[in-house]
Design a protein that fits this description.
209 residues; alpha+beta; GTP Cyclohydrolase I, domain 2; five-stranded mixed β-sheet; 9 strands; 37% helix; 24% strand; disordered N terminus
Length: 209
């Protein structure tokens, strides 16, 4: 049975309209069509269960569409003994899929913020990265979405996000140049206003390894 699902994807604070989700049977039929288009036989032994496996994998790879960043950041700890300096979680691994070619890009995210009313558990920032990474993405949008979510739900004095990733759409196809990294960054509040804070963030991210 078709179901209406809320995509929940945020882009410049605008919500995508709900979309009609095809049935599992429709999705599996689409995979069989792609196998035929690629030049293989979906009825041969090795591919018989591939459509089911692909659809099941998609539920995991793109589970971010069913997750809400507000729920991830809903618990704020205010009893931090007056701590108000930088909080940095670096080297958060992630994988996502390019929305242009639907092939992976893989990398690390580094997130820092200056708390105002409190802090969140450190694992929440890693979970927030996954909420947005497990959707069809561009690296630029992923960076902005993480920043906007922290701004909206934590109201910090500033946020800094740096993402570095390798895109398979560049290494597996097209120019086929492997090992090339793409870096994107976004700053708000004190990080945007004070270049020294940006430098401090970058020094902490790229410091002792």
């Amino acid at each position: 049975m078709d179901a209406v699902v809320d995509v929940r994807r945020e882009a410049d604070a605008a919500k995508f309209a709900p979309v009609v989700r095809p049935s599992r049977e429709d999705a599996e039929a689409a995979v069989r069509t792609l196998l035929l288009w690629a030049g293989d036989d979906p009825n041969r032994e090795g591919l018989l269960d591939t459509p089911k496996r692909v659809v099941k994998a998609y539920e995991e790879l793109y589970r971010g569409y069913r997750e809400d960043p507000a729920e991830v950041l809903d618990r704020v700890f205010e009893e931090v003994e007056g701590y108000g300096s930088i909080v940095l979680v670096r080297d958060i691994p992630f994988f996502s899929h390019c929305e242009h070619h639907m092939v992976p890009f893989v990398g690390k995210a580094h997130i820092a913020y200056y708390p105002s009313a409190g802090v969140v558990g450190l694992s929440k920032l890693a979970r927030l990265v996954d909420v947005y990474a497990r959707r069809l993405q561009t690296q630029e949008s992923l960076t902005a979405q993480i920043v906007n979510a922290i701004e909206d739900h934590l109201k910090p004095r500033g946020v800094a996000v740096l993402i570095e990733a390798e895109h398979m759409c560049m290494s597996m196809r097209g120019v086929q140049k492997s090992g090339v990294s793409t870096l994107t960054s976004e700053f708000t509040g004190v990080f945007r206003e004070d270049p020294a804070e940006q430098a401090r963030f970058m020094m902490m991210v790229k410091g002792a390894r």
